[in-house]
Amino acid sequence: MEITEFDPMRHHSITYPMEVGAPKFELVPVQDHKDLMVNTARMYAQQEYERIMQVVRVLQQQADSIKRRLDVTDWIYAAEYQFKIYHGRVYWLAHDHKKGITRLLLNSPTDWACGIPEHWEYICPVKSLGDSTWIELNPETLKPLDS
User: Fold this and answer.
1) What are phi and psi of 106, to 5 degrees?
2) Domain ranges of the chain
3) pLDDT tens, 66-75?
């Protein structure tokens, strides 16, 4: 069916008034609607971005912790010691300045009755984990530094 200018059915199919006496209609505030939609989109995108960045921070902390564990493990396996290692036991890493080597020790700095050898410097307490890696411990609490 063809709609012409003089077709009376045309008035029913057009969404805007065609005559002077037609009912009044309001313009849709398109710019206001766009602003509202953009603000809503930005709000939800910002929330999602912040959630993702929070996950990224957690993953970065975990990666840093694993990197530190690998560094400590490298120090231990490069150190000299003459005893069997038991998982879960606390050992002490110390540097012997006289010989220029790092030692893994059973004794803490407070375990020496006659005092720490003057050319030794205690670096940190360490603990062997079940996966053959090592973690650095807090010297005061002997708990992992991350907790």
Assistant:
1) -85, -30
2) 30-136
3) 999 999 999 9
